[in-house]
Amino acid sequence: MRTHARAVVVGGGAVGASIAYHMAKAGWTDTLLLERDELTSGSTWHAAGLLPYFNMSYATTWIHDYSIKFYKTLEEETGLNAGFSVVGNLRMAQSKARMDEYMLYASTAESVGVPFEWMTPDQIKERWPLVRTEDLEGAIYHPTDGYINPADVTQAMAKGARQRGVEIIRKVQVDGFTRRGDEWVVHCRRMVEKGGNLIGGEEYFDITCEHVITATGNHAQRTAAMVNCYIPAMPVEHQFIVTEEDPMLQEYRKQNAEHPVLRDADAKWYVREERGGWILGPYERNAPACFKHGVPDSFRADLFPLDLERIEEEYMSMIHRIPSSENCGLKDDFNGPICYTPDGNPLIGPAPGVENFWFAEGFSFGITAAGGAGHYLAQLITEGEAEIDMWSLDPRRFGAWMNREYAAEKNEEAYEHVYILHHPDEERERARPLRTAPSYDRMKAAGAQFGQVNGWERPNYFAPQGFDDHASRSFRRGGWWQYAEAEAKAVREGAGLFDATAFTKHRVAGPGATAFLDWLTCNKLPKIGRINLTYGLTDAGTIRTEFTIVREAEDEYYVVTAGAATAYDHDYMVKEAAKKREDFGWIEVQDVTTQWGVFAIAGPKSRDILKEIISAADPDTALTNKAFPWLSAKRIDLGMVPVKAIRVAYTGELGWELHHPIEMQNHLFDLLMKAGEKHGLKLCGARAQNWLRQEKSYRAFGSDLGRDATPLEAGLDRFVDMDKDYRGKQAMLDTGIRAKCVTLLIDGPADADPWGREALLDGDQMIGRLTSGGYSVAFGKSIGIGYVKPDLAEVGKKLKVRMFRELYDAEIVEDSPYDPKNETIRANG
Ligand SMILES: NCCCC(=O)O
C-alpha cells in the first residue's frame, strides 16, 4: 500500500483527472489520485459535454481555449478517442442588445485569439434551414469548438496521467486531513473488495504528501470543512432532455454535416444533435440549489426526478426555434447536481489559511474548464505562478463572511444567469442588501443606486427617486450615465463625497512588521505619519496586491487594499508573516476591515468643507499643505468623530480619505453633508470615480493591475525601489517589458464608451487591449487604460480601438492627462 506521494489529488472527475495529468506533465510524477467510487462517477458522467468558447471572463476564456486545444491532442497521446465533435457553436441573438453583448464578448475572444464569425439571420437560414430565423438579429459563430464525451475525455486524461507516472486509486474515501510538520496526512478509508466485489468491512490508512489538491465536485463544502474552510461551492439541479429521432433532421443529415451546438441565449437554452434527435439543455428560472448541508452518503451516481413543468417555457421555445422538433417524443432525461459558485466561476487556487492545500472546486462548466484548470493550477503549484492572471478564479475572492444560505441564494442566481443578458453595468440582485455600512439608509434616501463589492453595498451613482437602474442598463451609455457625468464634474469643480467603506484594512504591527512589509512590497516604506502606494509581487515578479501603507508608529502600519480582496490579502499576509517571523521577529496581522468606515471627500472645495467641522485650535491652518501635506496621514477630530485622515484622492483632486470608527459613521455623514451644503458637496458613486481616476492614469487593481503584469510593465516605476531587495524583484527584472500600460483618449461612437476589454489595433494588427474604459469629463470624450506592445507605447501614437465591430481613433497620451503636475491635488489653502 502506497504511504507517500508528493501531491495527492482528491476526486476522479474530469477536473481531478486533468490536474493529475498536468501535475505529472509539469514533472511532479509522484502524484496520486484518489477517487471514492469510479472515475467520472460524480457530476462528470451526467454532464452534457459541451465545450463552449463563449465566456466574458479573460481567465476563463484562456482556460477554455487551453481545454479545447488540449482535448484535440489527447487521442494521439493516449490512443483513446474522447469523441470530440468539432461541430462549432452558433449563438443566436434575438435583440440588438444581445448582439451588443456578443460584440463586447468578441473583444475578449479577439484579444485571446479565439476564432469567431458574425452571421446574419439569412446566412443562418441558408446553412441550417431547420432553424427559424425571422425573429433573430444575427449570431456569433465559433467554428472550432463543439462537444465531447465527458466520461471518455476523463478516461483519456486519466490514461495520460498514468502514462506519465500518476497512480490512480479508486474506491478510497478521504475522511480528513491533518497537518504534521511540513506534511499533510490524508486519512483514507477503503471498502474491502475481492474479485471486483465488495465483501464488507473497511480498511483505514494514511497517505502523507506535500500538497493536497481537491476536485471533489458536489462534496466541495464537506472537503473544505475538513480543513476548517467554508467555500460557497454548492450544486444546483440542472436538467437536460433528449428527444426521440427527428425525421426532418435525419433527412437533412443525408446531405449535410451535423448542426453546430445551437444556443438561443434569449430563450435560455442550448440544443445539439444526439443520435438523430435533439438534446435540450435549459437554464431555467427556479432551479433549486441542492445538498445545502452535504451530499447524503447514499447519493452516488444518482439523478433527481425530471421537473418538466420548470422547463416548459424553454421546451416550447426550442419547438419555436426548431419547428421539426415538435413531433419528437421525449426519449431520456437527466436532472443532476452541477456545482455552482456565487459568481458562476470555479474556485481554483490556494485554500484560505491553509498551507499547500489547493481547491479546484465549484465547476459549473466542468468539462470545458477541466483541461485548462488542470494546466494552470499545475503551473501555480509547481512553478509558484500561472502564466495567466487567476485572481478572478481564486478561492479567496470570496470572503469568510459567506455561509450556506448565501451560497444557495447566489448559486441559484448564477445558474439562472448562465444565459441572461450580461450588461457590463449589471448588478446582481439576490441576497441583498447584506453587508451595509451604517450610512446605507441615508445614502439610499439620497438616491444611491448600489453595486456590490465583496458583499458590501457601495453606491454606484445617485439618481432621482424612482429611477430604475435595471431598466437603464446598457452596453452603450446607460440611463445612469448622465448622473455619473454630473458627479464627475462636481468633483472637478466643487466637492464630492464617496463611500469607500468596502476597502480592505489591516493592522500590521510588532517588532518584525517593518522588515516584513519592506520585504513584502516594492516601494520604500513611508516615514511615520506618511503614506506610500506600493505593490506586493508574485514570485514571477507580477503584481499580486496593491497596498496603501500608512505608517502610524515605528512598527505599526495601517494597510489599505482593494475591497474585493479582503480574504485574498489577509491569507497572503498571514501566511507570509508566519514564514518570516523567525527572520524578522513577531508580526501581527489583523483584519480590521469591519471596524473602520471610509468616506473620501474630493474636489477643490473639500478643504473648505472640512475646515467647518474640524475640531482644532485653528481650523484655518489645520489642513494647509504645511500642517497636512499631500501623502500624509493624521488623526483629526471631525465633530465628535476621531478620524484617521489620509491626504490622498483616487479622483486626482484635493482630498482626504476619512477612516472613522464605523459605529460613528452616521454622525460623520450628517456633519459632512451639513457642512458641505453651502459648498455644493455632492454625493458621488463608484462610476464617476472610475472615470475620474482614468484621467489621472491611476491604475485599478483587478483590471489594469494583476498577476499578468509587472509594476514596470504597468508603468509604475515611481513606486518601485530599485535599491532595496524584496519578494519578486529579480523575477520582475528578468521578465523585462512584454507590454506597456498606457492611457488613451478615444474618439468613440457618440452613444458609447469602452468598458475596458476592447482590442487595440495598429493598422490591422492587434497590438493590445484596453483594461479600463469610460468617459472623461475633462476632455469631453472617451478614455481608457490598456496594454500595448512596448515599441508602440509612445505618446502621440495613433491607434484604433474596436467597439461594436467598428474601428475608432485612439491616441496614446501622457500619463495623467488631467493635471499632469498634480497642482490641484497639492493645492494649498
Ligand atoms: N454546461 C454548460 C452549458 C452551457 C453552454 O454550453 O452554453
Automatic annotation (TrEMBL):
Residues 7-380 form the FAD dependent oxidoreductase domain. It holds the Pfam family GCV_T. Belongs to the GcvT family. Its EC number is 1.5.3.19. Keywords: Oxidoreductase. PANTHER family: AMINOMETHYLTRANSFERASE, AMINOMETHYLTRANSFERASE, MITOCHONDRIAL. Signal peptide: none annotated. Residues 440-724 form the GCVT N-terminal domain. Residues 740-819 form the Aminomethyltransferase C-terminal domain. This is 4-methylaminobutanoate oxidase (Formaldehyde-forming). One of its GO terms (molecular function) is 4-methylaminobutyrate oxidase (demethylating) activity. Residues 383-436 form the FAD dependent oxidoreductase central domain. The lineage of its organism: Bacteria, Pseudomonadati, Pseudomonadota, Alphaproteobacteria, Rhodobacterales.
